[in-house]
Amino acid sequence: MLHGYSGSSNGHCRAGQQREGRPRRGRGGPGGGFRVSHHGQQFQEKNPVPPCTEYDKAYFQAYSDIGIHEEMIKDQVRTSTYRAAIMRYQDSIAGKVVMDVGCGTGILAIFCALAGARRVYAIDASDIAFQAIEIVKSNNLSDKIIVLHGRVEDVDIEEMVDVIISEWMGYLLLYETMLPSVIFARDKWLKPGGLIMPSHATLYMAPITHVARYRESIDFWRNVYGIDMTAMLSLAKQYAFEEPCVETISGENVMTWPSAVMRVDCNAVLPEELESITAKYKFISMLQAPLHGFAFWFDVEFDGPQNVPSNEHLHTLGASPETILHPNNRITKRVKSNEAIVLSTAPEDDPTHWQQTIIYFYDPIEVKQDQIIEGSITLSQSKENARFLNIRLEYSSGGRSFVKETVMR
């Protein structure tokens, strides 16, 4: 389970307590009811369908919880950005066939139908699909939207699609491993030159200082009603910081400009390229402050149809040895353009239910202004459960080097 806190920068990670936030939308279970096309048969021979594991079934079942869908829909940044992107590219949707991978309650499928889609295949593996069917009926859209209860890897559809839309992003972007299902749908059903929404994703990281968080979780034990409870410190650090935490921080916590860990082109990325990703980073601190850990967040972009295939499926963007991220060097800082619609989960932007993902150290490192912080980050799919993320963080500063390994469950 993912430990986290929903609400403020003074959040807690509770060992053994399930976070009330989303485990993410399901995409598995029994298959759909349409005939497989000839193209589908050829694809199936070259691309064997991954098995549906017990972990998958539990993951899908979690998405039957109405609270998860309420949280996602109430995330105004998330939902309004998707709606704005659909309207921006309405010319590519009107009169066309759309596939919504992991449709949940069907809200994105409905947005597409209202934008003029001729047909929308809304696919979800969790039992929330049955509510989606009723929602579609209530909005008199049954003639346009076909809800399929099953994994996208298992359903049968007899036509190609012009557009694929999906809200596949998990914490730390890749947690839950839903993007491979979008890739599966893309390679099996998307017409050449078709539209994928979102089209690109970028994962960022930055060192942070968070004195209040450390004081609340750790320093509290040094003096409890006048009693010395420092014997609790080791256990408290493990309890609070062993696993990644999902919290909201502010720009004041961030010690440098962020570094882009990787950029994903959803039009071309391959599943195997997502199995393990390593990037180097190198920062210069803008502050004199204790370094408590690293924060991670992501942006996704809606760039419209891709007429020319990309040669860069997944680009690791960590700083090279010659590149130092300094206040005067913003080359990897995201810049919003007028051309692309951007959904951002950055600390300086409006908050989302994704918040930020924080990897805290057990003990802070005192850092001076202009001191170098460098190392590498490796994200890999867990062998225990491919939806989990193994994280290996190597970091050095002030002549000291450390390694932290953790799992996002």
How would you explain this protein's 3D organization?
The strands form three sheets. Strands 6, 7, 8, 10, 11, 12 and 13 form a seven-stranded antiparallel sheet that branches. The protein has a five-stranded parallel sheet with strand order 3-2-1-4-5, with helices on both faces. The chain has a four-stranded antiparallel sheet with strand order 9-14-15-16, with no helix packed on it. The chain has helices at 38-46, 54-62, 66-74, 76-88, 90-93, 107-114, 128-138, 179-189, 211-217, 233-241, and strands spanning 97-101, 119-124, 145-149, 161-165, 190-197, 200-208, 245-247, 259-265, 276-284, 289-302, 314-316, 341-344, 356-367, 372-381, 389-397, 400-408. A hairpin with a 7-residue loop joins strand 14 (372-381) and strand 15. Residues 1-12, 14-22, 24-39 and 318-337 have low confidence and may be disordered. The chain is α+β, with helices and mostly antiparallel strands and 409 residues long. The protein contains ten helices and 16 strands.
Essential attributes:
alpha+beta; seven-stranded antiparallel β-sheet; 16 strands
* Percent of residues in β-strands: 25-35%
Q: What's the tally of helices?
A: 10
Distance between the termini: 5 Å
Going by helix content, strand content and strand pairing, the class is alpha+beta
Low-pLDDT runs of 5+ residues are 1-12, 14-22, 24-39, 318-337
Shape: elongated
Report mean pLDDT, rounded to a whole number: 86
Number of strands: 16
What Rg do the Cα atoms give?
22 Å
Helix percent band: 10-25%
Spell the H/E element sequence. Answer: HHHHHEHEHEEHEEHHEEEEEEEEEE
* Largest sheet report: 7 strands, antiparallel
